[in-house]
Amino acid sequence: MGSIYQINKGINKPIEFKGLKAQYIGYLAVGLVVLLVLFATMYIIGVNLFVCVAVIAISGTALFMTVFRLSHKYGQYGLLKKAAKRYIPLFIKSKSRKVFIHLSDPKKK
Fold it and tell me: Between the chain's N and C termini, which has fewer beta carbons within 10 Å?
């Protein structure tokens, strides 16, 4: 008898979880771990429990809103492209015009 295989229709598609795309899932996970460590630190120091919960709730809400906004605004690769754009030089310095003169000369090719 032949085997029956399921076809995976999600090949080459970006990973997505409840509207978050690609690297934003990782950003949210790291943010939640930081909030957990912050809560534990505040609790161990002796801050009032209601203050700890309030600070973590406000910070968590801000984290979720920021990550979802970035995910919807920039998409899968947009935030990486925005970060890479900072490293593009504004101008190129050259001491000689020879490089640019030979670019438009079809005989030199």
Answer: N
